[in-house]
Task: structure prediction
Amino acid sequence: MLKIKDKEFKRYLSEETLHNRVKELGKQIAEDYKGKSPVVLGVLNGAFMFLSDLMKEIEEPLQVSFVKIASYSGTSSTGRVKEVVGLAESLKGRHVLIVEDIVDTGLSMAHLMGMVKAQEPMSVSVASLLVKPEALQETITVAYTGFEIPDKFVVGYGLDYDGFGRNLKEIYQLK
Ligand code: IMP
Ligand code: MG
Result:
């Protein structure tokens, strides 16, 4: 049991479970992107921990860049993408791998996809640690999914509740 502000959470995905899956994804991505020198585009803030662990499992030349978007307030999506910072580098002609913590409604990802595609990259794929298929409102293809989870709010391993919980080693689910 874990309490963050007014809410109670229970342990959901252990450190070992996360680590093993991240390793598998890294191996798969390394194979798929062999010789392609991709740009890995991390979505801040939530993806920082997943991205950091994932990168260490990809033993291929790549570049890392970040964008920042926000659509959440408390435990529910506002349905609007509030803020976008970044995308300074040109992605034209590059293989882009977007790395997210979670695809929930898919609105943020759809928005980001549009921005990335406008730069005419050679390819764009998505790696997301978590996907909530029941919450999806957009058609998003996630090429590399860590775990499909039910439509319940989660924190930890980069994911937050009102800014807290990002530093947790494990993922917790709202009780
Ligand atoms: P979407 O636009 O609804 O897909 O929401 C995407 C963003 O909302 C994610 O990148 C997360 O930062 C945040 N988010 C969605 N679901 C959760 C959750 O269960 N816990 C914490 N953050 C979440
Ligand atoms: Mg996010």
